[in-house]
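Example 3.
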Amino acid sequence: MVRFPMTTEARLPHEEMQALIERGDAEAVCEQLDDLAVEDIRYTIHRLGPAEKVRLLHLLSEAHSDTAATLMEHFGDSQAANLVEDLPAASAASILRELDSDDRADILRAVEPDHAQRIIQRLDPEDAADARRLVAYPSNSAGGLMITEYLAHRATESIQSVLFDLQRHAEEYARYDVQYVYVTGERGELLGVIRLRDLVLTPGDRPLSQILIPNPRHVRVTDEQTQLQAFFDEHGFFAAPVVDERGVLVGVVRRAAVVEAQAEQAGRALLAFGGIIGGEELRSMPTRTRILRRLMFLCPNILLNLLAASVVAMYEPTIAAVTALAIFLPMLSDMSGCAGNQAVAVSIRELSLGWIKPRDLWHTLNKEVGVGVINGLVLGFLIGAIAWLMRGEDWPLIGVVVGGAMCLNSVVAVVIGGTVPLLLRRGGVDPALAASPILTTFTDLCGFFLTLQLATAVLL
Amino acid sequence: MVRFPMTTEARLPHEEMQALIERGDAEAVCEQLDDLAVEDIRYTIHRLGPAEKVRLLHLLSEAHSDTAATLMEHFGDSQAANLVEDLPAASAASILRELDSDDRADILRAVEPDHAQRIIQRLDPEDAADARRLVAYPSNSAGGLMITEYLAHRATESIQSVLFDLQRHAEEYARYDVQYVYVTGERGELLGVIRLRDLVLTPGDRPLSQILIPNPRHVRVTDEQTQLQAFFDEHGFFAAPVVDERGVLVGVVRRAAVVEAQAEQAGRALLAFGGIIGGEELRSMPTRTRILRRLMFLCPNILLNLLAASVVAMYEPTIAAVTALAIFLPMLSDMSGCAGNQAVAVSIRELSLGWIKPRDLWHTLNKEVGVGVINGLVLGFLIGAIAWLMRGEDWPLIGVVVGGAMCLNSVVAVVIGGTVPLLLRRGGVDPALAASPILTTFTDLCGFFLTLQLATAVLL
């Protein structure tokens, strides 16, 4: 590996860290981490290689499992899962023990099932039961986003006893970010909610049933992320109770978890749009994994390109007669792709924000056609002028051919670019991943055909 | 406009809404909004045309300004600003009055300054002063993200008096999402913070100075979004006090505001990656705006394409001799672009998460070269095989030429794709917007040169 060029005489934090891991000095690692700002910690641990990360976590899991857990939170779920798979079950369990129930479940969900079971067996019985339950929910549902750390009291208890409980367990509850106390009935069913600030303002000898807000707003454990987003958009709550199909309180989903899942999703959409399949790619992943995942996107793309190439092959005699066309075909392909990808991006964005629905094909088509026609005229004129200036002496009408094809193909590009994401979403395919390859296949096919057919008619 | 095909006999919500706006029936509009779920409200108002949106807001601004304000929150800031610019200052003021101070400032920041002044003059004096102050901060700084609705009390006050104040203004404060009480000194400087739950647990006759957490964690009004992200990553707080350069408490920034800004940014990065300049594009924007903004990205792209085209032009005699090359040049261009864009996407993602820094050119290059070589061999072999199968009879070595060029160009593509975003970020240019056009210019230039030079050497 080429060495990073040194700008100062001192070692960079991740090189320092590498040396400490090598020495197996957990204390010194913790000291170094204490000295670093969060941004630097995040950067430093991501610069470590996969084996170094595992060794670091293993090292800390014995006496510093809380620190190891903090580091774990800096990794995406799939990467954290990969690291956990390389740790002995006992080390993994002592780290995961320190995490919030939702983060723990997110990781365990992605760990190979047998290893996950071995880890879960080593958790405290209560945590283990929670983990088994949470792992079963899809990661972006209320069940997957909720935490099981919350305060629930029976409706028959008195305010005083709740305050007493709060006081006694103040330290433990500090981790829970307590804002609400949930009130349940006999079977654990959700009866009401009490805001902490209302507890403050009420004499303490009355039962909770007298001050609770009855039939509180709640979400269902099966609710999906978009439903949760809508819920928190509508209500200003910090958190919402989650109930199962029998109305039993099973967890609490925090607004922050939903917004973070949304940010996460937008980030992954950008990766998919760039042709990265299967979520996160990190440069610290094993090279083999990265190569295979990238090829999974590139290889099908060759086949799509072959379709467009076969159109060109059909018109080889035309190209032999007007070789200048070879100059403009790649340009036409690129410009059409760009024009169409603008429409793809807008459609993906509008879909993800709920501003259009998959059924709005006509609406989208209408909105794009106008843009396509005008932009087609502008781009067609410009590219036509370039073609005429470059090769007009030999083929006087080449500008008309290339410009005309560009103009028509711009309309095709924005119409396909605008509507394909809607169709893909309807079909349950991620538009960010598939729309662009489909778009460029069509625009190439169509653009090459238009140019070469026009050329055959006009120039030959 | 082509009509949306009706699936039921009833009118769709936005058609119903259009009719009510046409009639000027504010009461009926409010009733319709009450009947719709949030998702449907968001969708419905986005389906209205720009003029209809303005008329709707104007209609509601008289007797239903709270409803108008709720609708305003569904629009992005720049779109909300456009709508506000089309409203009379008095209507705009009565709507903006209902918004939280941060949302109000976000919109006013984007409104044309004279009109913004006219609106601010019509707000309550206190709100107006806040708005003038907040508008001056950049939107993604602590100043731009903070709210000015928070509870601050002097250190000399007693707990009892704070609780009394809470009780008296319970309704008003409910809007503030009170979790903390901030304690200030003589000059308004931040002395400490008290969690609401600690207020509950302490006898009421002591002064705040005895129970406050002194020197609380805070952010500076000039802190940028990445610093705020790091702050909230490090600390589990719901909100952080914001102080100015003199240590005076000037606002409170909520975790949710920071995470939402992050999600917003990731969404805009996807748009930029698709070639949409200048933030949000909505299909409900005026067509002329959309056309101009899209052309601002496409036109410079023509010039970049011209660079690549001029390489092909230089080799026209080679193409005249081996016309099959015209079939494979667009394919090579597209595949190289795809391979490079994967690296672009990963770099943008890693940069935005703080996992790599703009200076990590060597690290990124090292990580990409390996992937590029292997993927280059695979893609080169496949495309070479295709070329040989398609045209091997006429030009036996064409597979070697096309495959060899593809192989080499894959390495170029991932190296440029991986590093250009870092260089752009160093130069203060948005990598999501500029990296892909720069990448494809280079990969085209280089790919065409490699193919045609190899062809000239081997096939002629």
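The domain at 13-136 of chain B is CATH 1.25.60.10 (MgtE N-terminal fold). The first strand of chain B starts at residue 152 and ends at 154.
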